[in-house]
Sequence to fold (99 residues):
Amino acid sequence: MYVGVDMVKAARWERICEKFPSRLEKMFTEEERAHCESKGKNKAYSYAALWAAREAAGKALGIGILGSGFGDAYLSWTCLLYTSPSPRDGLLSRMPSSA
Fold:
């Protein structure tokens, strides 16, 4: 396995969102589109980030996005609880003591 990195231009995704919205249905899952559309006027940035993440994953796997179909890889969101003190805010664990 390799490391994958990718960069995209948000302006390109703004143009795709405006002029070719039907392409988004072919490129992204329903869950991914719902996430991006929930970002309102910043949805193009979310689409750009998703695309870059997919490209980077393809590179890390050594296949690239063109080595597979658009539907072969997708991103999903998960809510995680952290159980150790956060160095960011100095607070103790937010996990209930009964857990």
User: Anything to note?
Assistant: Helices lie at 10-19, 21-27, 30-37, 43-61. The CA atoms of residues 32 and 75 lie 7 Å apart. The chain has a mean pLDDT of 76.
